[in-house]
Amino acid sequence: MLANALGSVHHIAKPLVLYRRHDATVTGYYETKSLGERIALSRRVGAERYGFMALVARESASVLKALAQSAANPKWSDKLLRSGTLFEKLASNYAIREDIYRKRGSKNKLASFMKLVASQGYFGSAFYSLGMSSFFKDLVCCFAGQTSIE
């Protein structure tokens, strides 16, 4: 998080940790799964997960902004403050997304969905935007009546 905020991140080709994925993971690659399997996996993720992600992003924003206030280097302070602002936007997007999955009724869900569309929550900056697959998943949720499974 700090490397992203203050400079850049570089890939190290050498394995440095043992990393294992399990069948129930909700992140990662899906090359070996069919479209139907990927959709089924994504339907398991709902309001509780998006609320948690909003909380983590808010906490990250808070840490970065606190570091910005205490940074001796003005350039670092500006970068930390900008990153904190981006994390706040990400938190807002996840909180709105949580609303989509918590609310009852297509009209209520669609109102939150449109709020996320209007704020460029799906197709804005690469840092805080949720992307095309999230757009379609949330749109289907608005009309299919899906609520959070958690």
Question: Strands, helices and their partners?
Answer:
Elements: H1 2-6, H2 35-43, H3 47-70, H4 74-102, H5 106-118, H6 132-144
Helix pairs in contact: 3-4, 4-5, 5-6
Structure notes:
- By secondary structure, the protein is mainly α.
- It has one domain (32-144).
- It has helices at 2-6, 35-43, 47-70, 74-102, 106-118, 132-144.
- The longest helix is centred in the middle third of the chain and has 29 residues, at 74-102.
- The mean pLDDT is 86.
Q: Which structural class do you get from the secondary structure elements?
A: mainly alpha
Number of domains: 1
Helical proportion, percent range: 55-70%
The shape is: globular
Largest sheet: none
Mean of pLDDT: 86
One letter per element, helices H and strands E, the order comes to HHHHHH
Low-pLDDT runs of 5+ residues are: none
Q: N- to C-terminal separation?
A: 28 Å
Write down the Rg. Answer: 18 Å
In terms of DSSP E residues, the strand content is: under 5%
Count of beta strands? 0
Please describe the structure with a list of short key phrases separated by commas or semicolons.
0% strand, 62% helix, 150 residues, mainly alpha
Task: Give a brief rundown of this model.
With about 150 residues, the chain is mostly helical. The chain contains six helices and no strands.
